[in-house]
Amino acid sequence: MREFIEKTPLDAWIKQQRTSEKKIAFVPTMGNLHEGHLRLVDEAKASSDVVVVSIFVNPMQFGPSEDFQVYPRTLESDRQKLWDRGVDALFTPMAEFLYKRDLVDHAFVSVPKLSEDLCGKFRPGHFNGVCTVVLKLLNLVRPDVLVMGEKDLQQIRIIEQMICDLNLSVVLKGVAIVRESDGLALSSRNQYLALEERQLAPTLFQTLHEMKKTIQSGEKNYAALCEKAALFLKNKGFNPDYIEVRRAQDLKIPSSAEDKALVVLAAAYLGKTRLIDNLFI
Ligand code: AMP
């Protein structure tokens, strides 16, 4: 596995791959890799000749009171996992290289409306940070295929729109959520959970699952269903930011009984840990 920190050697290597007509797939991550990330690597390998993974904890996507400073950084074990999974190149850029000026003065990419909805309502500026870093990384790696996880479904929909609106020529592939055996979606933030919180955490997925069953059996009053689910989670000890039923394809509010491809999405705090999850219906 090749490892790059600087632009020039990465450029040279990418050029080499392009000259030999290799198809490049790219998996951007913030590290602290788990099986969810590694499934993206598997998908990347299946859809290309060479796989590039980046590890970069992106300061632009964290709010001032969020966990940027304490976000788990585990480069040694991440490197081993990527090596074991057969990744071709690891890119670990320095913050000073990606952001050459103060974030307040820095150019950014913004996908309007959807970026202010759902998680964006509670994490102002988060998706501008995500779009900006993903575009930077796409410019540096110039992949044919970009692989991202459906765990962050809103992120996928926003990046899809950025790719379309800015005429980028990369193809985005989404990978289904990887879960623990009790249903909890794998996340680097799960390790913040105290023991009792960890035991309670799968209740979020179970609630989404119950909502899915209710909708499948004919329930159309989504607002009432979401309200009931939020109250249930509150009583269990969660502090929900939102629980919403949306159209799967664009995350807009379902407008009529014809909207059949739906998804239920939720974000909720358990203690200080913010969990997100979603389930297609
Ligand atoms: P992160 O390191 O949290 O920024 O995640 C990097 C990529 O891994 C994103 O595209 C995430 O959606 C994806 N990812 C994280 N957790 C999971 C999971 N449990 N299942 C599938 N993909 C995931």
- State mean pLDDT (0 to 100 scale): 97
The distinct ligands, each listed once, are: adenosine monophosphate
Number of helices: 10
Shape: globular
Low-confidence stretches: none
Query: Largest beta sheet, briefly?
Result: 6 strands, parallel
The largest beta-sheet arranges its strands as: 1-4-3-2-5-6
What's the total number of strands? 9
Distance between the termini: 39 Å
Strand content: 15-25%
Helix content bin: 25-40%
Order of helices and strands: EHEHEHEHHHEHEHHHEEE
Considering the chains and any ligands shown, give keywords for the structure.
single chain, 281 residues, six-stranded parallel β-sheet, three-stranded antiparallel β-sheet, 9 strands, 38% helix, globular, binds adenosine monophosphate
Task: Give a structural overview.
The chain has 281 residues and is of the alpha/beta class. It has ten helices and nine strands. The protein has helices at residues 7-19, 35-46, 75-84, 95-98, 119-122, 126-141, 153-165, 195-200, 203-216, 222-236; strands at 2-4, 24-29, 50-55, 89-91, 145-149, 171-175, 239-247, 262-270, 273-280. The strands form two sheets. Strands 1-4-3-2-5-6 form a six-stranded parallel sheet, with helices on both faces. Strands 7-8-9 form a three-stranded antiparallel sheet, with helices on one face. The longest helix has 16 residues, at 126-141. The chain is globular and about 55 Å long. The structure holds adenosine monophosphate (AMP).
Task: Summarize the structure in short.
The protein is an alpha/beta fold.
Task: Give the helices and strands, then pairings.
Layout: E1 2-4, H1 7-19, E2 24-29, H2 35-46, E3 50-55, H3 75-84, E4 89-91, H4 95-98, H5 119-122, H6 126-141, E5 145-149, H7 153-165, E6 171-175, H8 195-200, H9 203-216, H10 222-236, E7 239-247, E8 262-270, E9 273-280
Helix pairs in contact: 6-7, 9-10
Bound molecules: adenosine monophosphate.
